[in-house]
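Problem 12. The chain below contains 290 residues. Write out its predicted structure in token notation.
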Amino acid sequence: MRKLREALKTREALAPDPDAVLAGAHGRIRRRRTQRRVAGAAAAVAVVIAVAVAGMSLLRPSGEPESIEAAAGAADLPVPAPALPFTVDNLPPSLELSSWTVAGGSASGRYEGYYGTTMEISVSEAGPDVADTGTVTYLSGGAARAQLRIEPGKVVTVVTGSRQFPEAGLLEIVKSVRLVPTPVHSMLRTLRAPAGLTVRQWSGGAEAEYLTLCPAEVPLKTPARTDGRCYEITVTSAGAPVPITTKALTPLPPGKTVRRLLNGGTVLTVSTELGAEAVMEAISTSAVGS
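Solution.
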């Protein structure tokens, strides 16, 4: 018994200071409470952001063109869905839109029908020689072109193949064009791009789609794809190696390329000459096929 008391007395000096032990315990408790409060605040912020985003989509005016569905990525913005800036009220029922192009202040749609019937309708900047009452001009090979100024600075042009429509019919068509947007089918359901990039040109058809995104410092010129700071995006379906457009395009200079296989077998290609690879990856990752 005497030896036990001596042993306990010897080890008494090795025992930790109770005040130090309590201080350490309280410090750990305070840190855990702080971590819980931070986590709770982050969760609350996430809920508020989610509610705000949902509210923005509900409060969007019904007349505003819809955007392609948003994907994840708070730093990026959804690219607005493509639309022709005009509506044709008296389009012949045998014709259907086969391809389209929107570039800056100009836009055009190509319509095809039975037995090789074709028509291209475009809206562009008007020159001073365009009549307000509408004119029809016959081109080489029997093709016809009708033009009409629909408002200051805007002209509608309708071009058809060889003697496919009478002159009176062409004038009725061109006079029925109104500056009311018409949504067009896109092969992309989701696409996001970093803030500061805007669509300079977008062309689409049944088997391919092409669009150009440029930063604000790129001058507003056509075609914008000749500037290496822009990003070229192409979506093609199986067996469609070349994009279908209504305008001739300049070959893309050599540069960096990212390629992804989307749902439905479509292939997405993002290219740039002088742009950032991180931006290419972000655009590519956000894309979802329709």
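Discussion. The mean pLDDT is 74. Students who got a different answer should revisit the alignment rule from Section 12.3.
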